[in-house]
Amino acid sequence: MAEHGTDTLAWRKSSYSGASGGDCLEVARVHGGLVPLRDSKRAGGPVVEVPMAAWRAFVGSVEGERRRAER
Predict the structure, then answer these.
(1) What's the rounded Cα separation, in Å, for the pair 49 and 36?
(2) How far is CA 14 from CA 3, 19, 28, 55, in A?
């Protein structure tokens, strides 16, 4: 988990997460080949960084599930 320099990152979350700001995963721009992730409820909490390939695989899987659910 990253502990340094994450307060200056531009965090964003999905437009599907709604206005309540509830249980959301926030993501920042790629940082040295890694994708920083954090819990929106704990902005000052720990940050997990995953390799770009793992993030792309995760997003692709979620998008595939969403497309199947829309059929």
Answers:
(1) 4
(2) 23, 11, 12, 14
Domains of the chain by residue range: 34-71
Contacts of 43 (CB under 8 A, 6+ apart): 11, 26
What's the predicted TM-score (pTM) here? 0.72
User: How far out from the chain centre does Cα 62 lie?
Assistant: 12
Cα atoms in the 13 Å half-sphere on the side-chain side of 44: 0
The answer to whether the beta carbons of residues 47 and 26 sit under 8 Å apart is no
Alpha carbon 50 to chain centroid distance? Answer: 10
pLDDT tens-place string over residues 9-20: 899 987 777 666
| CA angle at 46 for the pair 53 and 42, rounded to the nearest 5° | 110
Backbone angles phi, psi at 67, to 5 degrees: -65, -40
